[in-house]
Fold this sequence. Notes:
Layout: H1 9-28, H2 35-42, H3 46-52, H4 56-67, H5 80-97, H6 99-109, H7 136-152, H8 155-160, H9 166-183, H10 190-205
Helix pairs in contact: 1-2, 1-4, 5-6, 5-9, 5-10, 6-7, 6-9, 9-10
Amino acid sequence: MAGGSTDPRPARSRAALLEAATTLLRSGGPSAVTIDAVTRTANVARATLYRHFSSANDLLAAAFVSLLQPAPMPPAEGELRDKLMAVVVGWADSIAEVPTTLAAMTWLASGPDLGPWAEVRESGAVDGDGTAVATLRERIMALYTLPFDAIFDSPQAREELVEVDRIGAIALLIGPLILGRLSTLADFDFRGCAEAAVDGFLATHARTADGGVSAARTGSAGA
């Protein structure tokens, strides 16, 4: 008999619980992820669930994070408009195809009133610099601001743009895409909407030669 083997049952039960939670999250939203519903769906005892997750909220946090899509990062080279377009179009594709992404962005847009999940802590989660991420909302915020931080923190952006309110910028750039997705219009032009959002943002945030804000962005597509 081979020695040193590990019992695979804990890993299987955790995977079953997480799969059940993500299934419930997709179909019924956060309120559907309850202890009873998860254990019934996974056919796992409550005591087993508590060996892996301290509460339904901890399980919800793990399920939500497992469904989040990677952030579309900007290209290393190119003009500022091209970098913003790459990120905004990337989010447009994700919003159009992945309901969880839309839900997460909607939660962020709703402000601090996120119900009982506002302060859910994801145990063991760390940000890119090794700093612990305290709450689920902070985890989502860190993910979705990452590509914009990469752009706005660059010397290129500091030279071409006035000071940018990051949350306001994300609302201006991503908000129209969320509204388009919520409209359920089959022929909604996500790319056209992304281009209009980026060009509108640049028109109102471009730095002029004297350090002011440009009245209009020149050189944009279609100008």
